[in-house]
Specification:
The chain is an alpha/beta fold. The chain has two domains: 163 residues, TIM Barrel, CATH 3.20.20; 66 residues, no CATH class. It is built from nine helices and seven strands; from the N terminus they run βαβαββαααααβαβαβ. It has a seven-stranded mixed sheet with strand order 1-2-3-4-5-6-7. It starts with 6 loop residues before the first strand and ends in a 32-residue tail after the last strand.
Length: 280
C-alpha cells in the first residue's frame, strides 16, 4: 500500500536555499527512512540529476520537482511542481526567467541596504558567490556572517521581512501562468503550505477557487511545523475544492528542529493522495 510509505514531497538542497547538497539530502532522507522523496528547490531543477543518481544508489524513489514563486493579487505564493519533466523546454526557459528575476531583486534589495548604511555591494558579492539561486535566506546568512545582525531572524525582522524597508515586492509571474508551466511539463501543480499565507478567510477561498480553475491539482495538507488545526483546515479546503493532498517537510537545514525529514504525519483519511496514481 502506498499509504504506508514514508513520503516527503517538499525538500530543498543548496541549489536553492537549503544547506545540504542534493546527494547529502538524499542520503539523509534514506537514513531517516524516507522511501519517496521530492527535491523541490526554489525556481531551479539544477540538483535533480545529482539527487537522482544518489536515490538510485540508496533505493529511494525520487520525484522530480520544483517550487516556483508566483503572484496572486500582489500576494507571493509558492507552487510545487511534482513529477515534472525538467527538460521540457517551456519550463526550462521559464525557470531561467525566474533566475533573472531573483538576481534583479537581490540587486535592488542590496541597493536599499546600502541606503540604510549597510555594505550592500559587499553583501551582494557574497550572495552571488553562492552556488544556488539567490534568495533572501542567502542574504540573511551573509548579514549574520558580516556581523550586521545577530541572526537570520533578526535580518528578516529588521531589513528583509514583509513590511520593512529593504523588503521589495517581487515581480513574480501570475499564478495561472505558473500552473500552466507545470502542467505543460507533465507535473501536478500543488499549492505549498496554504495555511501560511496571511489572507482573510474570503481571500483564501478565492485563491483556492482560482487555483482550481487554473488547473491546480493538489494542496500541501501536511507540512513542516503545521499545527493540528492547520492540517484540519487544509483537509477541509482540499475536500471543498476537489484537490488531492500532499505531504512535505519543507526541509532546509538539519539544524532546524521543526521540519525534520522522515517524521511527517500521515495524510488524513478522506483526502486523495497526490501520489495515488503515480506510485504503482
Amino acid at each position: 500500500m502506498t499509504e504506508a510509505l514514508n513520503i516527503d514531497l517538499h525538500t530543498h538542497s543548496n541549489c536553492s536555499d537549503g544547506v545540504l547538497t542534493p546527494a547529502e539530502l538524499v542520503a539523509r532522507a534514506a537514513a531517516a527512512g524516507v522511501q519517496v522523496l521530492a527535491l523541490t528547490d526554489h525556481d531551479t531543477t539544477d540538483g535533480l540529476d545529482e539527487a537522482k543518481h544518489q536515490a538510485q544508489e540508496r533505493g529511494i524513489r525520487l520525484v522530480p520537482g520544483v517550487e516556483i514563486s508566483a503572484s496572486w493579487r500582489a500576494q507571493s505564493i509558492h507552487i510545487l511542481g511534482l513529477w515534472i519533466d525538467p527538460a521540457q523546454a517551456t519550463l526550462r526557459d521559464a525557470l531561467g526567467g525566474q533566475a533573472a528575476r531573483r538576481a534583479g531583486r537581490m540587486r535592488n534589495i542590496c541597493a536599499h541596504l546600502t541606503r540604510r548604511g549597510l555594505p550592500g555591494q559587499e553583501l551582494l558579492a557574497t550572495v552571488e558567490a553562492f552556488a544556488g539561486v539567490p534568495t533572501r535566506s542567502h542574504l540573511a546568512a551573509a548579514m549574520v556572517a558580516g556581523g550586521h545582525v545577530r541572526s537570520a531572524e533578526d535580518a528578516f525582522r529588521r531589513y528583509l521581512g514583509r513590511g520593512v524597508a529593504a523588503q521589495l515586492a517581487a515581480d513574480w509571474p501570475a499564478m495561472g501562468e505558473v500552473v500552466g508551466w507545470i502542467a505543460g511539463a507533465g507535473g501536478v501543480a500543488t499549492l505549498a503550505h496554504p495555511a501560511r499565507y496571511k489572507l482573510s478567510a474570503g481571500a483564501r477561498r478565492q485563491l483556492l477557487a482560482e487555483f482550481a480553475a487554473a488547473g491546480g491539482g493538489a494542496l500541501e495538507v501536511v507540512t513542516g511545523a503545521n499545527a493540528a488545526h492547520n492540517v484540519e483546515a487544509c483537509t477541509r479546503w482540499a475536500a471543498g475544492h476537489g484537490f488531492a493532498g500532499s505531504i512535505g517537510s519543507d526541509f532546509h537545514d538539519p539544524q532546524l528542529s521543526w521540519n525534520p525529514l522522515g517524521r511527517l504525519a500521515k495524510l488524513p483519511a478522506g483526502v486523495t493522495p497526490v501520489w495515488r496514481d503515480r506510485l504503482v
